[in-house]
Specification:
single chain, mainly alpha, Na+/H+ antiporter like fold, 16 helices, 0% strand
Length: 332
């Protein structure tokens, strides 16, 4: 048990924040004595500054040549996923709450993870260079594309958003810190290296506080009413189906393109993973103040749990195959 906790600190943190929000929402709601909404805003800006410090610009430039595999991964992240999200928006509202459908569209337009994609690809003996390039590129694209797509769909769904205010907030709290972090990386690489060691801590603190604040506000406003278990069950089932559907479609595409096993591993992880650290801050800026904000972010939170669990299963599968092939080649 202790080993699992050490390996999955973010999962543990998320469940703790969900528990606090359920049992004592007054502590984490906007306007509480310690003003969590203000702290979240500051931490989000610091978090994207840290992401700018860690963004490998040179690797992005050097890796741009392999455009077919990059097109497959980015196409999955920003074309296939959003199309599936639109399908839920148009056809899923008869089965799911509209706020849940909007939350799944937010999930579908969010960028890939960076650290998880690279770590899982390396552990599974995939091409780390491909994962590094695409995870980093996806993160940059998502800062602009995610809020744009979500704003368009939210407006069409009847949610009134102030576009000038939303994009001004995104520019101030996300784009500007990201660019500043990248500038520090390019000008003072040694300073950037030491500061970037704190990236994970800042990420976890930001994510945990966004979840606590959003769920506390939604619970106090009555958005969950008495159907919390039904909401959670429907989100979980949909998230599981979505993950394996994308994995299946990516495997078919890899077979069609005759990619190597190492390339396929990078494609599956980068194409199926979604970044909670990028998605939640954007959601906070766009939907903060809505009574259903806590419901909107739940698909991203649940999908994050699913992708960690299923990606670990896939990693074990690929490691076994690698060891089996290694043993066969050694015996010959």
């Amino acid at each position: 048990m202790n080993t699992w906790i050490r390996r999955n600190p973010l999962q543990v943190l998320l469940w703790i924040m969900v528990g606090i929000a359920i049992w004592h929402p007054q502590w984490g709601h906007s306007g509480a004595r310690w003003h969590p909404e203000w702290l979240v805003t500051v931490l989000v800006s610091v978090m994207f500054f840290m992401h700018g410090l860690a963004l490998p610009t040179k690797e992005l430039i050097n890796g741009i040549k392999e455009w077919p595999i990059h097109s497959l991964i980015q196409g999955c992240t920003y074309i296939l996923f959003p199309l599936l999200g639109l399908g839920l928006i148009h056809y899923g509202t008869s089965l799911l709450d509209p706020a849940i459908c909007l939350g799944f569209f937010l999930l579908c337009t969010t960028s890939s993870t960076v650290a998880s994609c690279i770590a899982l690809t390396a552990k599974s003996h995939g091409r780390v260079a491909v994962a590094l390039f695409n995870a980093s590129l996806s993160s940059v694209i998502g800062v602009v594309l995610t809020p744009l797509l979500v704003s368009l769909v939210a407006t069409q769904s009847g949610i009134a958003l102030s576009w000038p205010n939303a994009f001004a907030q995104i520019a101030l709290h996300i784009l500007l810190p990201l660019v500043a972090g990248q500038a520090v990386r390019l000008l003072w690489s040694s300073v950037a290296y030491y500061l970037s060691q704190l990236t994970t801590v800042i990420d976890y603190a930001s994510i945990g506080l966004v979840v606590l604040n959003a769920l506390s506000d939604s619970i106090i406003s009555g958005a969950f009413s008495h159907s919390s278990l039904t909401i959670l069950a429907s989100i979980t089932v949909t998230a599981v189906i979505l993950f394996w559907l994308v994995i299946g479609l990516l495997k078919i595409a890899c077979r069609y393109l005759k990619l190597s096993a190492a390339d396929e591993i990078a494609v599956l992880y980068c194409g199926s993973q979604k970044s909670i650290s990028n998605g939640l801050p954007i959601a906070k800026i766009l939907f903060q103040g809505l009574s259903s904000f806590g419901i909107i972010i739940l698909p991203l939170v649940v999908y994050h749990q699913c992708q960690l669990l299923f990606s670990a299963f896939l990693s074990d599968h690929y490691v076994r195959n690698y060891n089996k092939q290694l043993g066969q080649s050694t015996s010959h």
